[in-house]
Amino acid sequence: MKKIKYIVVVFCFSIFFYNHSISSEKNVDQISKNLRCLICQGQSVYDSQSDFALSMKQLIQNKIDQGVEEDEIYKYLKEKYGEWIVYDPEVNKNTFLLWILPLILFIFGGLLIIRKVTIK
Amino acid sequence: MKNKKIFLITIIIIISIFFILLLGLKKEQNYIPESKLSIIKNNISFKTLYSEEKIFLNDLLKEKPYNLINIWASWCAPCKEEHPYLIELSFNDRINLVGINYKDNIKNAKNFLFDLGNPYKEVLVDNSGVKSIELGAIGVPETYLLKDNKIIKKFIGPLNKITFDEITEIIKK
User: Fold this and answer.
1) Domain limits for position B142
2) Least CB-CB distance to A81: which of B128, B130, B136?
3) Do B134 and A80 touch (CB under 8 A)?
4) Do A55 and B34 touch (CB under 8 A)?
5) Least CB–CB distance from A55: residue in B35, B36, B132
6) Is residue B10 part of a domain?
7) Could you give the CA distance from residue B173 to residue B170 in angstroms, rounded to a whole number?
8) Chain A residues bordering chain B (beta-carbon distance below 8 Å)
9) Long-range contacts of range B105-108, CB-CB < 8 Å, 24 or more positions apart?
10) I want to staple A37 with a disulfide (CB 3.0 to 4.6 A). Which of A24, A47, A48, B124 is the partner?
11) Segment B16-44, tens digit of pLDDT
């Protein structure tokens, strides 16, 4: 019984420390995966080794160390570089079609299938 | 009859797609970040290249009506190209030039200015590149024209005759 208790305690501790040690590293990676590298075509900041991307990762690390939330980092960078820096586009009049088009195609396709089935 | 109609519509669609793509080819490919934030904030501080003191960027921007922030590095070839224009601008008494040395070796940076001349009123050092990002830069060379402490024009890439003339025209006013 004692042995089991001991193992459980060690297990909990190891999970705690494991999470603790990877949390900040993970965050930089997660955030930089959502950012577009502005000087390298088709790469995220996470993928790129350019000077710009390396500095950007450093900046994100600094912000995390200062205790800045993920959303605020995105907001901060959007202020500096505009909407283009993030991969997830906001819904506005320029991106409206981008968001609505899959839905239209989905409905259209559905209607086609229904028509085919009912005709048969 | 019906087939003919479908054929015509397909042709029209293909032709219109062709023209849309053709227009897209001619569009400017270089991306220039549209920054909403054009005011230099108070809290950006740098070490200087020569005295190694810590100073705030804003304090440098008060003397003259116009300021030019130029981000450069000794390892960047286009920076050499634009250097004569900066030297020429430094003789204009309506504008101050502030250089930000980006991710560079201090010794090389000093040699660069010794060889080509120093147009800057003050040279600031950005070792990690983080501070340039706080200014909204994406690389070197990059030049910002400021009125008071507001960025009124961004030049990405080296200055040339056209942009040089543009700057001198703006600062005349």
Assistant:
1) 45-172
2) B136
3) yes
4) no
5) B132
6) no
7) 6
8) 38-39, 51-52, 54-56, 58-59, 62, 78-85
9) B105/B74, B106/B49, B108/B74, B108/B75
10) A48
11) 999 999 998 887 666 666 665 577 776 78
